[in-house]
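User: I'm new to structure prediction. If I give you an amino acid sequence, what do you actually give back? Let's try with this one:
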Amino acid sequence: MEKHDVVIIGGGIAGLTLSKFLAEYGIDFVLLEEHNDFFKKACGEGITRFIAGYDFFDLYESKAGIEKYIEETNIYTKYGILQLYMPVLMTDKREIESELARQAMKRGADIRMNERVEKIEWNGKFILRPQNIEAKFLVGADGIFSITRKFLGKGKLRCAIAVEGLSNEVKLDDEKIHIEMKKSIVKYGYSWFFPKREKWNIGIGSISMKEFKKAFNEFKKRHRVERWKAGYVPVSKPVEPYGKNVILLGDAASQTITSIGAGNMPSMICAKIAGDVIKKFSAHGFRDIDTKEYGNALRPITKMLKQDHNLAFAMHFIVRNEYLIHKILKKYIRQASQYYKKLEREKGRI
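Assistant: Good question. You get back a string of structure tokens that encode the predicted 3D arrangement of the chain. For your 350 residues, that looks like this:
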């Protein structure tokens, strides 16, 4: 039986970020990823630079995979264009995840691909099957259909569905992000046009499967892409992310900004927090640990994510009038733009 102090299930951006910090702290762990390559989940490939006082570059420590620095986003509603100032990094997401893996392995991380965990057992320690790996502590960074969350007995997450693809036929300002929040385009969601270095990442998503199908059928008639990639995005409030000797991370815990379906930066922040908490547990040999410490450490970002979730669901399901939604967005965007301009002045452009 192979034995480790910690096993991370899932090698997306959450699990890879955590592996980087655990390796840096010298903690014995292995990461198991079911796929044979990175970037398997559909994603717009944009990463918000600043969230909850954290700077992406402080967590990532590289510029590999960064294709563009976008400062402004045009949000199109039925009643006009709203301009949001929010620094977003347009990326090659596969390269971002590959770079995180390189950083982790350079520090000594054990990252194993093509390793799907099918069963978790507990007999005072965790046993993962079919790998036959024993661990004192378990991290579920295994996405929206997390086997770890199921093991903890926590319910399914509410999901949105989205598709994205690459196009070179978009005729919009390529120094801005463009988002359509119009019910004539898609109900309970939005479409996006994100400028990369040479092409555009475009897509559409909705909380409603029925509305998504109708909207996507029309969207793909208007836009040609190399290939469409589909995926689910958690839109539940963040769940309680811990149990006995186990924590949840990233999409598995619904650590996502619901209003824009953004999980990259929140996952990285939560991974840094998780790493610091696990470092403390490791110092005590993973004995008599209280995983509520992880939940407590997450409180500031969890509060922010819950507030955003409430705003998103109010706009989608409570406020039905598109003019009122436009007015709410206008106020929110004005406040957000002021906040991000202040942060960028303090931190610098890059």
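You can read the tokens as a compact description of the fold. Here is one thing that stands out. The chain has one domain: 2-347.
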